[in-house]
Design brief:
The chain is built from 14 helices and seven strands. Strands 3-2-1-4-6-5-7 form a seven-stranded mixed sheet. The chain binds guanosine-5'-diphosphate-alpha-D-mannose and manganese (II) ion. It is found in: Membrane.
Length: 377
């Protein structure tokens, strides 16, 4: 896209003496305080001679990362910081950073120095000079490699990569790479179709954009993390599956519905098993239904807690307090559940039928309580 230049544009360019920005490098951060200075220095060396800007996107790090970035930016014109408050998610952070620039080419790089910044000029040139739409840093082609990864991590990454090929039609060796560059106008055209969930923005982009993008690959060797710890955890893994589901069957069944049915099914199984055991032990139906209902509520709480970001997970006393609060929020649902089940059981003494009817009533309430009480991104 070219815009006609007016005499005033030339006048402005002359006054500021600044050539237009050619490349924006987006750097997502969550607790990366000791990495941002060495990274910035490495980027400045690697991109020497280009007109570029760094855009950090921080999700309210608690270790002083944004303050460190501000100190670095204070005497550099080409460093910007976007602070997101009360939000989490690598993919959405990257997209917000990418949409905050006017540079024609946008790249992403991790803050922990695992990606080799020396490959950035090649990624940029592949688009700006050679006409690619996307240029991907790859660990799985040519001289690329995963470096010193543990065997289990290599296996997990290979499995995830194989799964990704179901969603992506394009031939790419490393669709899960977090190190790539893209033409900004293609990003803008694709943004409305993105799922925006989880860690894997490149996969999301490849699966959402019009068919037939021109793709370039630049091999690099994955390095070890410089400082700090990885944010990869069970929440990230489950969000990956959610992204894959959204990109494959998402047009037919919303993945959140699948998740609801999965958790609901597990809860119902636990409920019925426990209820039958309690009835066999001689408890009254209503008492058994109430105990089984509380067990199912505890399971919903436990599962939800296990699949939130590690740093937000409740442990010890906070876990118990959270469970109490959650159970209290579900109390009306539990009363409705037991009331309905006991009435049905009196009319028609089929324990599992009455049990399921009550549990379904309780599940609707538990879901509402979950979405009200538990904060999402
Ligand atoms: N803003 C923001 N919000 N940044 C985040 C968040 C978040 O919720 N979670 C992680 N980050 C930042 C980290 O601070 C780091 O700069 C980068 O995203 C990658 O996070 P790591 O915790 O280092 O993840 P990883 O090393 O397991 O995964 C990376 O490597 C993969 C290659 O296997 C990611 O870059 C993947 O995208 C990449 O594919
Ligand atoms: Mn990392």
């Amino acid at each position: 896209m070219t815009v006609a230049r007016t005499a005033r544009d030339f006048q402005v360019a002359h006054l500021t003496h600044r050539p237009p920005i050619a490349l924006a490098v987006v750097i997502p951060t969550f607790n990366e305080r000791d990495n941002v200075a060495p990274l910035l220095e490495a980027l400045e060396n690697a991109l020497e001679g280009r007109v570029w800007e760094a855009i950090f996107v921080d999700d309210a790090s608690t270790d002083g990362t944004p303050e460190r970035i501000e100190a670095l930016a204070a005497w550099r014109g080409h460093v910007r910081l976007i602070r997101r408050i009360g939000r989490r998610g690598l993919s959405s952070a990257i997209v917000e950073g990418m949409l905050a620039t006017v540079a024609p080419v946008v790249a992403v790089i991790d803050a922990d120095m695992q990606h080799d910044e020396a490959a950035l000029p090649a990624l940029h040139d592949a688009i700006a000079r050679d006409g690619a739409d996307i240029a991907i840093g790859t660990r799985y082609a040519g001289a690329g490699s995963t470096g010193d990864w543990a065997e289990s991590r290599v296996a997990a990454s290979r499995l995830a990569t194989r799964l990704a090929r179901v969603a992506v039609r394009a031939e790419v060796s490393d669709p899960l790479s977090g190190f790539f560059a893209i033409r900004r106008d293609l990003l803008i055209a694709t943004a409305p179709q993105l799922s925006n969930v989880g860690f894997k923005i490149l996969l999301d982009l490849l699966a959402s954009m019009p068919a037939g993008p021109r793709i370039a690959e630049v091999p690099y060797r994955f390095r070890c993390r410089h400082a700090g710890t990885s944010k990869l955890d069970s929440a990230v893994a489950s969000e990956y599956l959610l992204l894959l589901a959204d990109k494959t069957i998402g047009r037919v069944v919303p993945p959140r519905l699948i998740l609801f049915l999965l958790v609901g099914g597990l809860g119902l199984m636990l409920h019925l098993l426990l209820l039958s055991a309690l009835l066999r032990a001689g408890l009254a139906f209503a008492t058994g239904q109430a105990i089984a209902g509380i067990a199912a509520i505890t399971l919903a709480y436990t599962l939800d807690n296990a699949f939130t970001y590690r740093d937000r997970r409740r442990k010890g006393a906070r876990w118990w307090r959270g469970l109490l609060r959650f159970t209290a929020a579900c109390a009306i649902g539990l009363i409705a559940n037991v009331g309905l089940a006991a009435t049905l059981y009196r009319l028609e003494p089929v324990w599992w039928l009455a049990g399921i009817a009550g549990a379904a009533m309780g599940a609707v309430w538990t879901t509402a309580a979950t979405s009200l009480l538990i904060r999402r991104n």
